[in-house]
Write a structure and sequence with these properties.
Layout lengths: L1 E6 L4 E8 L3 E9 L1 H4 L7 H23 L8 E7 L3 H18 L3 E5 H7 L11 E6 L4 E8 L2 E7 L5 H11 L6 H9 L23 H16 L6 H27 L3 E5 L6 H10 L5 E2 L10 H15 L25
């Protein structure tokens, strides 16, 4: 079964062809990072326009690379949300056009489900499993008892971890995107600033990074006002160690309580080298898997994989009333695990 994946939730235009949820025939990604770097972050209107300009080219590249025709495609899976509404609508409407023209069933996919299924591209999921979702907009612990069976154990109560990274990078004068810059600098630094570990000992599975972000920003300004030099690599390492200590500790605790067979990490922050090293060195009794770096950030291969497994489970496609949604829950109303 060949699934075409379409991903346009933010600032990457991506189209992929994936066979049976695992074999990637093509995964084309057109990034807008160079454009949005000029503004220090993603500008929604510009992102939408760039999707319009590039999406036809990306379709052509994916089909050519896969060596197939549109009539070989069995299912179209498209990101329906959450994300920037203008960007989402470009992908959803493109999916409708192809679906109508070639009579291919179409399925809307929740973006975080896609990130979770990025792991399935290279490592077979074993249930029950625990997914740590870490990105610019999400920080969640998701328990899965089977394909497309999600139970949210905890989430951030304020800032997502990726958002905190970007804001700390901004005060340090690091270019956008800030997360990878902090991670790279942290590799050469030491935890000399000893920032707090928020909610490390809380009894629940929730996270909070707003207080840590404010503490780090205040520490920076206090040093500047006193004329003290900030050692940037140490500052980055101290912040990263505080974040990863919390993520790893809470993930391990939840994994042990629920006796999972494996832990998977999903989302853009899954590419973070410090998080990867700490997860693997700390958690030794449960297998820990990360997607390949190319599948950590937004891409259509993860959407195609998620689409395959959702379709296998539900045997249902969406009609042409499918629309983009800036807010869309991973667990849908009506699902017995919905909260």
């Amino acid at each position: 079964m060949i699934v075409m994946g379409i991903e346009t939730s933010c600032d990457e235009t991506s189209v992929s062809l994936v066979e049976n949820g695992r074999k990637v025939l093509a995964n084309e990604v057109l990034s807008q990072i160079d454009i949005h770097q000029l503004y220090g972050g993603v500008v929604p209107e510009i992102a939408s326009r760039e999707h319009v300009k590039g999406i036809t080219l990306v379709f052509d590249q994916a089909i050519t690379k896969a060596g197939i025709s549109y009539r070989d495609i069995d299912l179209i899976a498209v990101t329906a949300g959450p994300g920037l509404i203008g960007s989402l609508l470009i992908g959803v409407n493109a999916a409708k056009v192809i679906s109508l023209n070639y009579h291919i069933p179409m399925l809307g996919i929740q973006h975080i489900a896609g990130h979770i299924y990025a792991n399935q591209l290279e490592n077979e999921m074993e249930f029950p499993l625990l997914a740590l979702v870490v990105s610019g907009g999400h920080t969640e612990l998701i328990l899965m008892h089977g394909h497309f069976e999600f139970q949210k154990l905890g989430e951030t109560q304020d800032d997502a971890v990726g958002e905190a990274y970007d804001k700390i990078a901004r005060i340090l004068g690091l270019p956008y995107p800030g997360g990878p810059r902090i991670d790279a600098l942290a590799q050469t630094g030491m935890d000399t600033y000893h920032f707090p570990r928020p909610m490390l000992d809380s009894p629940d599975d929730n996270f909070s990074f707003s207080g840590l972000k404010s503490h780090v920003i205040n520490a920076y300004h206090n040093h500047m006002q006193r004329g003290q030099t900030i050692h940037v690599p140490d500052f980055c390492r101290s912040f990263q160690d505080a974040v990863t200590d919390v993520l790893v500790s809470k993930t391990l605790k939840a994994a042990q309580i629920h006796q999972v067979k494996q832990i998977i990490v999903a989302g853009g922050v899954a590419a973070n080298k410090g998080l990867r090293e700490k997860m693997r060195s700390t958690i030794t009794d449960i297998p820990v898997y990360f997607p390949h770096i190319r599948y950590c950030t937004d891409n259509a291969a993860m959407i195609a994989s998620a689409g395959y497994f959702k379709y296998q489970k539900t045997k249902q496609a969406d009609d042409y009333m499918l629309n983009g949604a800036s807010r869309l829950d991973l667990i849908e109303k009506g699902d017995p695990t919905w909260q």
